[in-house]
Amino acid sequence: MSRLVVVSNRIAPPDNKGGAGGLAVGVLGALKAAGGLWFGWSGETGNEDEPLKKVTKGNITWASFNLSEQDYEDYYCQFSNAVLWPAFHYRLDLVQFQRPAWEGYMRVNALLADKLLPLIKENDIIWVHDYHLLPFASELRKRGVNNRIGFFLHIPFPTPEIFNALPPHDELLEQLCDFDLLGFQTENDRLAFLDSLSSQTRVTTRSGKQHIAWGKDFQTEVYPIGIEPDEIALQAAGPLPPKLAQLKAELKNVKNIFSVERLDYSKGLPERFLAYEALLENYPQHRGKIRYTQIAPTSRGEVQAYQDIRHQLETEAGRINGKYGQLGWTPLYYLNQHFDRKLLMKIFRYSDVGLVTPVA
């Protein structure tokens, strides 16, 4: 029987008590259902030569490793999050391409392949996730791995005009063709990938979504990722924590607008703050009767673009509160910290408006 092997940039350990991101939540749900191995970076820097850290809980085994400071900087901070992330979100103005970072990106993908290789069994199905690991199947193929390898991209795939602006675009496209199956969030993303591919080489398509490029046979599909409604309902059930219950009682005459997402320029946070300010300015009857709470924990804090947006939001929040705040009423609460997922579900339950305004 085939075993599922999930590979992602970072794993969520079994004892993780913090807020889990969308990728981790989706992957963990699949692994709980099928069982298998979850392999990836521990999230820590240290000696890369140390043995893999393995933990088994139920039907899931977690295997993780550390990255050196240099590999963390080149692979994660620079190429993944200062080149691929902004480009894939149509922000070429934020792309900072450096050849050493590209070399580090390739180096770490090769390192991951070396570390995973001894764990792979003959019938394993390997499922690779997201933009950090675009060359990963290519690295496994170089090492003689013939297992079925799938890939899912959790973010948009840009149009050829954007993607082809990246210096290593042709190499990345050819490496992606080493996957047996490429999954995308939307049909637009799938077509954007195929358009980029067609701009670089001849693509033969048969039976709709089966393709050949550079002599490699692969399939493309669309798999919109979702949530587990029953799990969300369970986490939101039960009494509110005492402090939250007290806050709800104090604000019983105030309508609550609530937003939570990772601090990122793709989320539309500065635009959202300005829209809220426009509401207070143009409809003064709402002052003192609504409150907007924005939770936006920092990630990728080493990347300059993320430092810039954090400073911008802190400045805007202070300005809006200084301009419109009253005794006993603060119009905007901006919290730059992580919250437990279960607590967030309860906060969602008592809020009147959930506000989501991505710009990419």
Would you kindly provide a written description of the structure presented here, covering whatever features stand out?
InterPro entries: Glyco_trans_20. This is Trehalose-6-phosphate synthase. It comes from Salmonella enterica I. Its EC number is 2.4.1.15. Keywords: Glycosyltransferase, Transferase. This protein is of the alpha/beta class. It folds into two domains: 4-222, Rossmann fold (3-Layer(aba) Sandwich), CATH 3.40.50.2000; 237-354, Rossmann fold (3-Layer(aba) Sandwich). Helix content is 40%, strand content 21%. The protein has helices spanning 22-34, 69-88, 99-116, 136-142, 160-163, 169-176, 187-198, 229-236, 242-250, 269-282, 304-324, 341-350; strands at 4-10, 36-45, 53-57, 60-67, 125-129, 149-152, 181-184, 203-206, 210-213, 216-222, 255-260, 290-295, 332-335, 353-354. The strands form two sheets. Strands 3-4-2-1-5-6-7-10-9-8 form a ten-stranded mixed β-sheet, with helices on both faces. It has a four-stranded parallel β-sheet with strand order 13-12-11-14. Helix 4 links the parallel strand 5 (125-129) and strand 6. Helix 2 (69-88) crosses helix 3 and helix 3 (99-116) crosses helix 4 (136-142). The longest helix is centred in the last third of the chain and has 21 residues, at 304-324.
